[in-house]
């Protein structure tokens, strides 16, 4: 694997982990019917995910360069337009059809 590709894979893993932490505190949520769809739940704070990450540091700490690296990724995922929807697009589309 090339160095750029390797870096991208690493970033993807960090973003996935950050997403799981945000889902863990209810800031983001996963659609019950479409698990690939993640959207903003408007629960909790981004800081709650930082705390969750810190509390799991012994398990997940090795994924990050340091704690700052973790909070930077959590913040970036929390602010990402990818998850800025208020609900699941697919579910909304299906409801509109009914
Ligand atoms: Zn859905």
CATH architecture: Orthogonal Bundle
What hetero molecules are bound to the protein chains?
Answer: zinc ion
Compute the CA-based radius of gyration: 15 Å
Number of strands: 2
Distance between the termini: 47 Å
Q: Percent helix among the residues?
A: 55-70%
Helix segment count?
Answer: 5
Give a quick account of the main beta sheet: strands, pairing sense, barrel closure: 2 strands, antiparallel
- Please tell me the overall pLDDT: 93
User: Which fold name is given in CATH as the topology?
Assistant: Arc Repressor Mutant, subunit A
Report the β-strand fraction as a percent range.
5-15%
Task: Give unreliable regions as ranges.
Answer: none
The geometry reads as globular
Number of domains: 1
- Could you name the CATH class? Mainly Alpha
Describe what this molecule looks like in 3D.
By secondary structure, this protein is mainly alpha-helical. It has a single domain, classed as Orthogonal Bundle (Arc Repressor Mutant, subunit A). It is 59% helix and 6% strand. The chain has 5 helices and 2 strands, in the order αββαααα. The chain has helices at residues 3-24, 46-55, 57-60, 67-79, 89-97; strands at 28-30, 38-40. It has a two-stranded antiparallel ribbon with strand order 1-2. A hairpin with a 7-residue loop joins strand 1 (28-30) and strand 2. Helix 1 (3-24) packs across helix 2, helix 1 packs across helix 4 and helix 2 packs antiparallel against helix 4. It is globular and about 50 Å long. The model has no long low-confidence stretch (mean pLDDT 93). Bound molecules: zinc ion (ZN). The site of zinc ion (ZN) has 7 residues, from helix 5.
């Amino acid at each position: 694997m090339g160095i750029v590709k390797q870096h991208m894979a690493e970033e993807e893993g960090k973003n996935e982990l950050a997403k799981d932490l945000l889902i863990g505190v209810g800031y983001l949520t996963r659609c019950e019917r479409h698990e690939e769809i993640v959207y903003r739940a408007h629960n909790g704070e981004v800081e709650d995910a930082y705390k969750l990450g810190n509390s799991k540091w012994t398990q997940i700490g090795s994924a990050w360069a340091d704690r700052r690296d973790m909070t930077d990724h959590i913040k970036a995922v929390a602010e990402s337009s990818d998850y800025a929807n208020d609900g699941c697009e697919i579910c909304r589309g299906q409801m509109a059809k009914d």
